[in-house]
Each structure stands twice: as structure tokens, then as C-alpha cells.
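Page 42, continued from yesterday. The earlier attempt failed because a stray header line got pasted into the input along with the sequence. Redoing it now with the clean sequence only.
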Amino acid sequence: MKIKRIVISALILTCGFTAVPQTSKKALSAHNKIHSEQLANAKSRMDKNVITNMLRENIAKKEEHTISEESTKMISDLLSEAHRYIGRPYVHGAKGPKAFDCSGFTSYVYRQFGYTISPSSRAQYTEGTNVERNDLRKGDLVFFTSRRSGKNVGHVGIVVSADNESGDFKFIHASVKGVKVSDFEGYYLGRYVGARRIITE
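This time it went through. C-alpha cells are written below.
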């Protein structure tokens, strides 16, 4: 009886093994194609995730550079203070408040808000942090060459407004005609050199 059961079991197992068909080359090829497509889709999803993460990181970096409400108010007050001196005469070497030269004006205005910056435009160009022209905001210092400075920094003003799409901006400065607001596009007395940010947070 035991021998009979063993034989029957062996026959069932043998039939089970022989019943499994061999994988054809065509089926294997189809399987590989589907597998490749799945991998491509997974890679595409991964790429989308990478792009999404990069966008999130970019937004986070911009948020890190977002100015505080307190600093926004300070910049607004700083510009109001700067506008108080519109029309004051230009005098070379004058540091205010009755007369100014360009760097004397910017250093005087900033000093009213607790920021000590050099009274020299060339030295101011090394202070604060560098700002790209398409990232300007109110209160930034903008620098130009002048007739006397050659290719070096010779003039400075304070940004009043900026259009970062076009790169245009308005700035208040002690010009040879006195303290005034000028439009960068209409300012031909010097070549734009760069910008620095004094109020960073």
C-alpha cells in the first residue's frame, strides 16, 4: 500500500513538472519589453521627483532671503529720510545734512538707522553683500563709474524701486545737480558697475 502511494505521488509530481510549458523566446521578449517600459516609467517618475525637489529647494532658498517685516519698515523709513534731502546741493566731500557728495549722502542716510558705512563710494562697494541686477530691491546701493573715476567705482545711489524683469531701476543720489531721483535707463553720466545690500534680513 505504501509503495502504491509513493508511485502515485511520483506520477503526480512528474505530471506536474511536465505540465509547465517552456517560456518561449517571444514571451520572454514581450516580458523584457514590459520590464523596460516599467523601468523607463520609474525613471521618469524619479526625474519628476528630482525636478519637484529642485523647485522646492529653490523656493526655500528664496524664502531664506525674504526680508523681515521689521527690515521692510526700516527700508521704507530710510527712503522717506532720503527723500527729505531732495534738492540739497552737491558739494564734493560734503557729508550732510546741508550739502552732500554721493557717498556722503548714502552714508549719512544709513547712519540715521544705525548702519555705519564708509563715506567713500569705492569702499562702500566692498561692504554688505553683492546683489545681482535682476535681484535688486529697495534700499540696495547701486554703483557707477564717473567722469573722474575711469573704469572704477565713482558714484553711488540708493535704489528706490526696481523692475527685475527688465533690469531697470530708480535710485536716489547726490548728483552734481543736487539730491534727486534718477531712472537708470535715463542715467548716462556713468556706467553701471554693480550693487550691494546693506540691510540683508
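Notes: Residues 10-21, 59-64 have pLDDT under 50 and may be disordered.
Reminder to self: strip header lines before submitting.
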